[in-house]
Structure formats: C-alpha cells, structure tokens
Amino acid sequence: MENSTWEQKKKVPKIFTKEYWKNYNWKLMLINLAIYIVSYIAFLLADLLTKKNIFQWNLDGSDGTNLIHYKNGFYGTRSVLHRGTTLELGLGMVGLHIVSIFIMLITLVGIVFIQAKNYSYLISALAAISAGATGNMVDRFLYGGVRDVFFFSWSDTGTFNIADGCLLFGAIHFVVGVITIFTIDYLREQKRQKFEEKTRELEESENDNTTTPNTEDTHTEDKNPQILDTKQTPNDK
C-alpha cells in the first residue's frame, strides 16, 4: 500500500510537463480569473474614489493641506501627500514602480496555477494586494507621491489610504489562508493514513482467521470412528 501511494505521488503532473497542461482545468481558471478581475476593480475603485472625494490640495497644488477634515473617536480624514512608502523601503520612484508591476504580475500568474477549489479562497487576497499596489502606483505616476487620507484618532501614528489597507489585508489574508489550508490538508492526510492502517490491520486479522485450521473439527472426526466401532461390536457377536 505504501509503495503504491509513493508511486502515485511520483506521478503527479508537474507544471512544465505536457501531462499537467493536458489535465489543466481551463474552466476553473477562467472562473478564478473572473473573480480576481471583479475583486481587483472593486478594491481599486474604492481606493481611487475615496482619494478623489476626500483629498484636498493646497493653494499651489504641490501638496495636501495637511488639515483634518473630519474626526471621531475611531478615525479621521486629512490630506497628506506621501512621497515615500508605508514601510519606507528606501526605493526611488522607478524602483517603486517596478515593485508594483512585479506584485501585479505575480498575483496574476498565481491565479493561473490555482487548480484546487480550496485554494480559490486566496483569490480575493491576491486581488487586494494587486489593487493596493496599482492604486499607489497610479498616484506616484500622476502626482509624484501617494495621497493619504485616513488616520486613527486613538493612535495617530500616520496617515494611510485604502490601497495601503488592501496591501495589508491581502498579505494577512493570504498568509492566514495558506496556513489554514495546509493545516486542514495535513490533518485530512493524517486521518486518511490512520484509516488505511486500521483497514489494513482488519484485513490482515481476517486473513489470519481464515488460514488457521479448526482443531475442534479434526478432534471430533478422530473420535467418531471409535464410537462406531463400539456400536458394531455387539452385532458381530
């Protein structure tokens, strides 16, 4: 049983083989791509529209007003043009554009190789990451910086936008999703192996029972001739 399982694992189609693409589920890929595109557009529009409606430029249009427009006990809005990145990667404008395009391509390629339905859970995470990278890239290309409009009233440590939230949400969603899926698959595999072991043990015990001779029957057969002999003795006399 173990050898056959190992042989099956070795025969799993690889990405760069004809067998993989021969068995490729194109219908599932198109469904995943449609979900990705719809989610991507929704996240991107949410980012660009909030910036357009909330962000206010200063008089010469070179920066945000840096003034608070609204504030409650949880969050507030203000206009800050951020010429760096949320994580301060130390990259120039060209480097940031390259990173953004790379992120978009990686997430798009990732959709192509999601062939298991349980991994479809990760599509929205990839779309959020891509939309976040695109939203900030558009700002850097048009304005030389990112329009940040939100801050937390209870912890005013910086200003951010929905694109930043998409990047953070997408990354956390993706990591948690991968860990969850791998954990579930691992537990299922362990359960399957235990079930196979129990089944194999039952089969072996049944085989042992069928091959063991019935000693009681042999003893009975041996005694029967003696009984017959004793019955025939008076008749012979």
Give your account of this protein's structure.
β1 and β2 (75-82) form a beta hairpin. The chain is mostly helical and 237 residues long. Mean pLDDT is 81; it is low at 4-10. α3 (26-54) packs across α5 (123-143) and α5 (123-143) runs antiparallel to α6. The protein has a 3-stranded antiparallel sheet. It is elongated and about 95 Å long. The protein has a domain at 14-178. The chain is built from 7 helices and 3 strands; from the N terminus they run αααββααβαα. The protein is 66% helix and 8% strand.
Question: Secondary-structure map with pairings?
Answer:
Layout: H1 2-10, H2 18-22, H3 26-54, E1 68-71, E2 75-82, H4 93-112, H5 123-143, E3 146-152, H6 162-211, H7 215-236
Antiparallel strand pairs: 1-2, 2-3
Helix pairs in contact: 3-5, 4-5, 5-6
Mean pLDDT, all residues: 81
The count of strands amounts to 3
Categorize the overall geometry. elongated
Please indicate the percent range of residues in DSSP E strands (runs of 2 or more).
5-15%
Low confidence ranges: 4-10
Helix content: 55-70%
What gyration radius follows from the Cα positions, in whole Å?
35 Å
Straight-line distance between termini: 67 Å
The largest β sheet comes out as: 3 strands, antiparallel
Number of helices: 7
How are the strands ordered across the major sheet?
Answer: 1-2-3
Return the string of H and E elements: HHHEEHHEHH
Supply the helix-strand structural class. mainly alpha
Brief digest:
With 237 residues, the protein is mainly alpha-helical. The chain has seven helices and three strands; from the N terminus they run H-H-H-E-E-H-H-E-H-H. It has a domain at 14-178.
